[in-house]
Amino acid sequence: MFVNKVKLNQGVTLIELMVIIALIAVSLMIATPSFSGFFAKQELRGLGGELLFFTKLAKAEAAKKSSETYIVFKKSSATSWCMGLSEDNDSCDCTSANSCTVDNIERVISSSDYKEVSFDSNNFPAGKITISPYKGRSASAGTATFSVTADGVTKDLSLKRSIMGRDRVCSPSGNSLRYPSC
Fold first, then answer.
1. pLDDT in tens, 138-155
2. pTM score
3. Backbone phi, then psi, for 81, in 5-degree steps?
């Protein structure tokens, strides 16, 4: 009786290992730009949500304290900017620590949290939003616009505020994630 002994190779040859590593490297080189664009767009999307939160918090604080609250915008350059929420008209400088506070809690949104996002324009009077305790209204309307360029495409968001106190985040170009066109 003949018994065939089949020798099974267990393990991977050096050439097979090199081919697998090369395939992984090529896949990563192709995927990396897509991931960086994805994360940049998510930063802009997150900023939109935080802008709405800031305006709602400002309205609530104005009503609670029966006095005006302020959202102050500061822009050193397109990629160096900040916003601060304050109960005091003159003391809020979001570039200084603890100057923009509500109930002794610092309230600041900064470009350091949104590294890919540019602050493009702001046409609020004196660079700030003044929110009245009466239904969160404002003395004047305005818009602040932010953008990000990812994968060769520019996405933009605007915070629009009406005199009646209606806040909305929208896309001026109509191409920004889940937000509607302005």
1. 888 999 999 988 777 888
2. 0.77
3. -150, 165
* Residue range 37-47, pLDDT digits in tens: 778 888 888 99
Round to whole Å and give the CA distance between 127 and 83: 10
Spatial distance between the Cα atoms of 80 and 156, rounded to a whole number of angstroms: 17
Environment class of 133 (CB within 10 Å of its CB; exposed 0-12, middle 13-18, buried 19+): middle
Q: Is 100 exposed, middle or buried (0-12, 13-18, 19+ CB in 10 A)?
A: buried
- C-alpha 87/C-alpha 57 separation (Å) is 12
Stated as kind and residue range, the H or E segment containing 39 is: helix 14-65
Structure tokens at 106: 């610092």
Q: Which two tokens stand for residue 34?
A: 């897509």
Structural Rg of the chain based on CA atoms:
25
Distance between CA atoms of residues 175 and 182, nearest Å: 10
Q: Note the Cα 109 to chain centre separation in Å.
A: 9
Secondary structure string (H, E, C) spanning 9-27: CCCCCHHHHHHHHHHHHHH
Q: Is 32 exposed, middle or buried (0-12, 13-18, 19+ CB in 10 A)?
A: exposed
